[in-house]
């Protein structure tokens, strides 16, 4: 498809795909509530939260066609549990399962990664040297952690020299917890927490790591022996929703956490336990630490960045998948949809967002296959229980423009609560599992 | 969130604990099998034990969830804790009722 040409009228494109949608009748939504018959080959890239949720949903509601799920990873990780591991509360095994256990019947799983996307030819190149043609593509490749953009840093350093990073996987989260334990056993020292200057998945995680470490230091009875500092690349900001930002900064002030803004982590000398931050003036400044929590810059995976599917202009240019922030349909390739962390939208990089995005993308894909206007809209819903101590949390839920979107009328979106902590500890994983099966 | 969504999540949350629920149910059934042969009014000790069990459950529930009692602060927190205490007290009362009769 030539992206410069206007998209073909939907109905004509459909006939080309040989679609015989049962719901080609005039009524848009009720007809789509049922199953669709289609011969379109749907390919989903990514076997994470979004890819599996989409595979389960589409398999249930589209009949007669082939659905292929592409992704090499045989192990599935419940990533929201990483924070619990890194805080010394959960064992690693609690977040591990296999990809195959979430796969619906009737979906082909290609256990290979995509190495190139040719959107014009509707073709993918795979790491097993095969090519795959698609009629409709769902991009769900998640985030890429760009640790290499921090000079002197590589993920292998996590768990050594006082370095931690909750993002790099379950082992890294466990290694992070051990580094924090080591800091505590030293009896004194300086802990530095950082934030990247790109959009990031679960933007609350760097803050949660700070709060749970503070809890552990307080529990040791030696909090006063430790200096805890947070470095943010932004001006007076650690979180994009003002009410939570203000809460966190205020609480840190009470907890004597040093706050250094407009400082971006640019290099680490692991051997010397020294981090280098670049300030707003462009000058580099060194900081010694006993423990540092590193948050890597993030982007869509290179395979998306190097394809024509990436945003061409604006804040997400060159880094994130170009989709309409409401319909989740690609803005130039109408047969491409995006779900999960990979999409370039103002909010929406949490598993809770996927829970809302998946049904929107599903409904819009069904409508697209039926040649009807896309009915569903994603409102930017993002949620993460913001842990403020080990044992309590705030249920932060918000959407586009930072609008608060509480799910439960009886839970205040700004109050710390044990119930919310229990949700994070006990209920989030079942909710996630139900989402993978496309059940919520 | 829809009611059916909440129910679905509850179902997923309960799945790993079905064995425990089954065990509690079996204990109750066994207790009632015994109780049917011992009709009579419950003793005061039964209510006392039920209240004590409920209170203990309320005291340890936060710790069991890696939290602490002082973090039970909002009214939903207090309601959840009360529900736990009430649930445990009722279960203990039902379980012991056939054994503690006059
Ligand atoms: C520390 C941490 C804490 C978090 N806490 C919370 C929380 O409290 N609440 C919450 O809602 N969310 C939380 N999240 C975020 C949540 O886990 C993610 O938003 C969610 O997993 C996104 O799903 P996804 O499918 O987009 O990405 P992922 O689950 O990361 O899956 C992406 C998949 O794509 C695959 N892939 C990548 N490149 C390719 C390729 N070239 N070809 C094929 N496959 C590819 C990957 O291997 C992976 O399987 C947290 C995340 C982290 C890391």
Task: Give descriptors for this structure.
heterodimer; A: 440 residues; alpha/beta; FAD/NAD(P)-binding domain; five-stranded parallel beta sheet; 27% helix; globular; disordered N terminus; B: 102 residues; mainly alpha; 4 helices; binds flavin-adenine dinucleotide
Give a short overview.
Chain A has 440 residues and is an alpha/beta fold. In chain A, 27% of the residues lie in helices and 22% in strands.
Structure notes:
The complex is a heterodimer of chains A (440) and B (102). In chain A, 27% of the residues lie in helices and 22% in strands. By secondary structure, chain A is α/β, with parallel strands linked by helices. In chain A, β9 and β10 form a beta hairpin. Chain A starts with 9 loop residues before the first helix and ends with a helix. Chain B is mainly α. Chain B has one domain. Helix content of chain B is 72%, strand content 0%. Chain B contains 4 helices and no strands. The longest helix of chain B is centred in the last third of the chain and has 22 residues. The mean pLDDT of chain B is 93. The chains are: A alpha/beta (440), B mainly alpha (102). Chains A and B meet through α10 of A and α1 and α4 of B. The site of flavin-adenine dinucleotide (FAD) has 37 residues of chain A, from α3, α4, α9 and β23. Flavin-adenine dinucleotide binds next to α3, α4, α9 and β23 of chain A.
